[in-house]
Every structure is written in structure tokens, then in C-alpha cells.
């Protein structure tokens, strides 16, 4: 074997070793990156599951809030209707009881609304407040009219 053959054999052997080392290095880096990628995927998946649980709890709270507010506004509407329909035809003690029931119902609605409005959007809160005001108006007009009538003041047709 001559010098030329020895150099070629050394280069080829070194190249083969270099190729094998490069292949093993690439495999190690790919394996390492795959492990990190899977680790990050697991963390992201866990965070998404946690956020999903939080969102489902918030939606559950929102549904409970809407239900409680709805029940209280229905109760207040029933009390306001009862007051308007009966207050004119009963004696003063019974009228005071009806008015007390109406005030208690309004206070209960405000309490429930205050406790639960944080779970609702501003638009929904605005609609709820408008409905409450619309229910209050006839009862309040009737209260003032009956007070004026009982005190003997002149009243307009309104």
C-alpha cells in the first residue's frame, strides 16, 4: 500500500466516522427537541384544560346569576301587580302590608342583583335595570296617586 492509498483510506474512514457522528448527533438533537416539544404540548394542554374548567365555572356562575336575578324580578313584578290591583280596594293596614311586601321584594331584588351583577355584561345589566324601572313606574305612580287621593289633593287624570 502506498502513501496515496493510506491517505484515501484515512479520509474515507474519517468521513465515515464523521458521517456516523453527524447522524447520531442529529438523532440525539431530534430526540431532545421532540421530548421538549412533547413537554411543552403537555403544559399547554394542561393550561388549556385548566382554563376550560375556569370558563365553565364562570359560565355556571353566570347562569346561576341570571336565574337568581330573573326569579327576583318575577317576584317583584308579582308583588307590584298585586299592590296595584289590590291597594285601591283594601283598608289602610292591608295597603301598608302590600306596600311593605313590595318594598321587601324590591330590596331583595337589589340585594340579589348587587351580589350577581359582576358575572354579567354591561349590556345585560343595563337591560335588567331598565326592566326593573319599567316594573317600578306603575307601582310608584299608583303610590303617589293614592297618597294624593287620601290626602284630598286634586289630581289630574294622569
Structural class: mainly alpha
Overall average pLDDT: 85
Strand content: under 5%
Number of strands: 0
Note the run of SSEs as H and E. HHH
Q: Helical amount among residues, as a percent range?
A: over 70%
Largest sheet: none
Q: What's the alpha carbon Rg, rounded to whole Å?
A: 39 Å
C-alpha end-to-end distance: 124 Å
Number of helices: 3
| Backbone shape | rod-shaped
Q: Give the low-pLDDT segments.
A: none
Compose a concise summary of this entry.
By secondary structure, this protein is mainly α. Helices cover 87% and strands 0% of the residues. It is built from three helices and no strands.
Task: Explain what you see.
It is a single chain. The chain is mainly α and 158 residues long. It contains 3 helices and no strands. Helix 1 runs parallel beside helix 3. The radius of gyration is 39 Å and the shape is rod-shaped. The mean pLDDT is 85.
Question: Any descriptors?
Answer:
single chain; 158 residues; mainly alpha; rod-shaped
List the helices and strands and how they pair.
Layout (H helix, E strand, L loop, with lengths): L2 H84 L5 H25 L5 H29 L8
Amino acid at each position: 500500500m502506498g502513501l496515496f492509498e493510506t491517505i484515501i483510506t484515512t479520509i474515507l474512514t474519517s468521513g465515515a466516522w464523521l458521517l456516523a457522528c453527524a447522524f447520531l448527533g442529529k438523532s440525539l438533537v431530534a430526540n431532545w427537541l421532540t421530548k421538549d416539544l412533547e413537554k411543552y404540548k403537555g403544559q399547554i394542554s394542561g393550561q388549556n384544560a385548566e382554563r376550560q374548567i375556569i370558563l365553565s365555572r364562570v359560565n355556571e356562575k353566570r347562569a346561576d346569576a341570571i336565574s337568581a336575578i330573573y326569579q327576583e324580578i318575577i317576584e317583584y313584578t308579582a308583588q307590584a301587580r298585586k299592590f296595584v290591583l289590590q291597594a285601591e280596594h283594601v283598608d289602610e293596614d292591608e295597603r301598608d302590608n302590600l306596600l311593605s311586601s313590595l318594598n321587601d321584594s324590591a330590596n331583595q331584588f337589589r340585594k340579589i342583583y348587587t351580589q350577581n351583577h359582576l358575572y354579567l355584561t354591561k349590556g345585560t345589566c343595563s337591560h335588567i335595570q331598565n326592566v326593573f324601572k319599567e316594573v317600578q313606574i306603575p307601582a310608584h305612580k299608583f303610590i303617589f296617586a293614592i297618597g294624593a287621593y287620601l290626602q284630598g289633593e286634586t289630581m289630574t287624570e294622569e
